[in-house]
């Protein structure tokens, strides 16, 4: 067991193998066995969407609840451990978690047949409260994704010294990245409400 848990790669592989085992077990419980139909693929992409979202929003909350508030408490000689090692790695998973979340969300909406209703927030069709809720959630998620890739990440590259810049430019970039990260934290609350509401209220 230690061999699995002391390696992140082995831990992730083991997690996916356990998931496959549970899928196989649950197939036996399903009437008629495994069905490779639209409903199964929709379920599969919902699972990937949630998994990706946990990575993305989890890291968003790590930055905003842990790293940013505590950076002033870290002695200057120790800050490079965060800015040169931890932050760049966390930002890698953060931005690709965002990308994976939006791609799997679009695929999921298409598989479930509500992509157009969601994108138009139900305004171009008869519309339903569910389409409106999931649409608002998707648009909030899209704004957050845009912020990650086109505002937060480019500014973080400057702030962290990945891209060369003078000290004032680094400070400005760091502040911009922080403000848009806070914006995403704010938007994540109604976004998650809309996503959950669409699945559980209507």
Can you characterise this structure?
- The chain has 202 residues and is mainly α.
- It has 2 domains: 1-34; 36-200.
- It is 80% helix and 0% strand.
- The longest helix has 34 residues, at 167-200.
In short:
The mean pLDDT is 92.
Helix content: over 70%
Beta fraction of the residues? under 5%
Task: Give a short account of the largest sheet.
Answer: none
- Helix/strand order: HHHHHHH
Fill in the keyword field for this structure.
mainly alpha; 202 residues; 0% strand; single chain
Task: Describe the protein's topology.
Layout: H1 2-5, H2 8-29, H3 38-70, H4 79-111, H5 115-119, H6 129-159, H7 167-200
Helix pairs in contact: 3-4, 3-7, 4-6, 6-7
């Amino acid at each position: 067991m230690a061999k699995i848990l002391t390696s992140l790669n082995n831990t992730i592989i083991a997690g996916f193998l356990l998931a496959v085992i549970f899928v196989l077990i649950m197939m036996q419980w399903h009437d008629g066995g495994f069905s490779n139909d639209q409903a199964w693929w929709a379920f599969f992409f919902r699972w990937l969407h949630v998994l990706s979202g946990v990575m993305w929003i989890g890291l968003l909350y790590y930055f905003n609840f842990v790293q940013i508030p505590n950076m002033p408490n870290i002695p200057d000689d120790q800050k490079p451990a965060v800015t040169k090692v931890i932050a760049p790695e966390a930002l890698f998973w953060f931005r690709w978690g965002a990308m994976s979340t939006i791609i799997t969300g679009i695929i999921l909406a298409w598989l479930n047949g509500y992509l157009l209703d969601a994108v138009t927030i139900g305004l171009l069709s008869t519309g339903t409260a569910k389409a409106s809720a999931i649409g608002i959630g998707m648009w909030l998620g899209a704004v957050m994704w845009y912020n990650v890739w086109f505002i937060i990440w480019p500014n973080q590259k400057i702030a962290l010294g990945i891209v060369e810049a003078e000290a004032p430019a680094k400070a400005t970039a760091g502040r911009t990245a922080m403000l848009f990260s806070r914006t995403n934290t704010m938007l994540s609350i109604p976004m998650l409400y809309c996503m959950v509401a669409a699945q559980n209220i209507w």
